[in-house]
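Re: [ENG-882] Designed sequences occasionally contain unexpected residues at chain ends

Forwarding the minimal case from QA. Structure tokens:
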């Protein structure tokens, strides 16, 4: 299952034009899908990421991955969920600096919830702006398609 498969699941789980619910998001990657620890190569293939990206996320402290006796990284379901979250945030434009701050706050515990909330609210505003900008771009693209005699499909 790749990241695009996860996104396809999310889109399929929506009801009409309603936003996807948090329960639907949580169900995208279930614990029973990852029953044994995974290697870097397996997680890279699963999430359609490069092993370099996974190692980079670990090196900068965004994810902590236990190692086998051999020294190889062994990703569990929690690690994969964290990486999935990180990739969604990166895709939506969150900076590595903000992700690093967010993970630091999570690691500090419940007392940081207000700061995490503020960070997520600011990021949400950025995403909403991106969506609005994409809607304008879609309207312009639809206009050009119609100009050339084509039909736009939803």
């Amino acid at each position: 299952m790749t990241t695009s498969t996860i996104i396809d699941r999310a889109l399929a789980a929506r009801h009409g034009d309603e936003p996807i619910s948090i329960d639907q998001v949580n169900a995208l990657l279930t614990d029973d899908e990852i029953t044994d620890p995974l290697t870097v190569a397996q997680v890279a293939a699963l999430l359609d990421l490069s092993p370099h990206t996974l190692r980079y996320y670990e090196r900068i402290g965004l994810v902590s991955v236990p190692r086998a006796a051999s020294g190889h990284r062994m990703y569990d379901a929690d690690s994969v969920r964290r990486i999935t979250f990180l990739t969604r945030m990166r895709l939506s434009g969150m900076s590595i600096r903000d992700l690093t701050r967010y993970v630091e706050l999570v690691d500090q515990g419940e007392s940081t919830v207000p700061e995490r909330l503020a960070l997520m609210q600011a990021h949400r505003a950025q995403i909403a702006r991106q969506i609005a900008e994409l809607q304008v771009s879609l309207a312009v693209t639809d206009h050009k398609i119609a100009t050339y005699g084509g039909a736009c499909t939803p």
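QA comment: On inspection the terminal residues look reasonable. The chain is about 60% helix and 0% strand. Proposing we downgrade this to a documentation issue.
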